[in-house]
Design brief:
The chain is mainly α. The protein has two domains: about 1-110, no CATH class; about 120-250, no CATH class. About 65% of the residues lie in helices and about 0% in strands.
């Protein structure tokens, strides 16, 4: 099925980050900071993507000055955090989650009060086909469809979000929706629609769903990263899924 390819890519990204951990530890013990940072550079695209996504979400809030913050500023600080504290990671399998925790901690320092489009959230079932098309046109025109930092990511495989129908339709009786939508829409159209709907959800729900769908974190890991209860994370993921599912059904089926 065409919508499953990016799921394997996510897993490969996680695996590749995990694999470099022993070498990073060796370089830290050897006090070879230059080689250490060069190796970190090789695994940064997905982290940059995450930082860019968080900053884009914050930029939609009032009184948030997007120009004050640069992705590279966070990356530079992350280099320092990782080099100074990597010994805190007890085993390679923990490194992926730990790396995102460090990144999230840096970003949380600039997070402002959460606001979201409650009109959309409460009336998602009532939008007409024309209103969906107008919303998507506005989404693209405003540049909000450009969720990734294309000019800074050398690996073209990172140059899009990884949302798929498999992240949304998970019940056995929903397989029919995947088949119908796969016939109507290409991968880019599916990703764009999901990204557009996700952008309208509460910020915490956006972030949780993105970590789940784009970065291959489990609900338990997201709970650790976000300092939340696992049951709350599961609820946020399911609520996001329900809204995205209903939007697909209303708009296309």
């Amino acid at each position: 099925m065409k919508t499953t390819a990016s799921i394997y890519k996510q897993r490969n990204i996680r695996t590749s980050i995990t694999k470099v951990f022993p070498e990073l530890i060796s370089l830290k013990k050897a006090d070879d900071k230059e080689a250490f940072n060069n190796l970190i550079l090789n695994i940064l695209p997905s982290i940059k993507k995450y930082i860019k996504g968080r900053l884009d979400k914050l930029s939609n809030l009032p009184h948030f000055s997007r120009n004050k913050y640069n992705v590279d500023d966070f990356v530079d600080q992350l280099f320092i955090e990782v080099y100074d504290n990597i010994e805190d990671v007890k085993k390679a399998d923990d490194f992926y989650l730990w790396l995102f925790k460090k990144t999230d901690n840096l970003l949380d320092d600039i997070t402002v009060e959460e606001e979201f489009d409650d009109f959309f959230y409460e009336n998602i079932d009532d939008f007409t086909k024309d209103e969906w098309e107008e919303m998507e046109e506005q989404f693209s025109t405003d540049g909000d469809g450009d969720l990734l930092m294309l000019e800074e990511l050398d690996d073209s495989s990172y140059n899009k979000n990884d949302y798929t129908l498999n992240h949304v339709f998970v019940k056995d009786d929903e397989e029919k929706y995947i088949e119908q939508l796969d016939k109507q829409l290409d991968e880019a159209k599916i990703q764009k629609h999901i990204a557009m709907v996700v952008k309208k959800l509460p910020m915490r729900m956006q972030s949780v769903f993105e970590l789940f769908a784009n970065y291959n974190f489990t609900p338990t890991e997201i709970a650790q990263l976000k300092h939340m209860k696992t049951i709350k994370v599961i609820h946020l993921i399911q609520t996001a899924r329900n809204n995205i599912r209903d939007s697909f059904i209303k708009r296309y089926l």
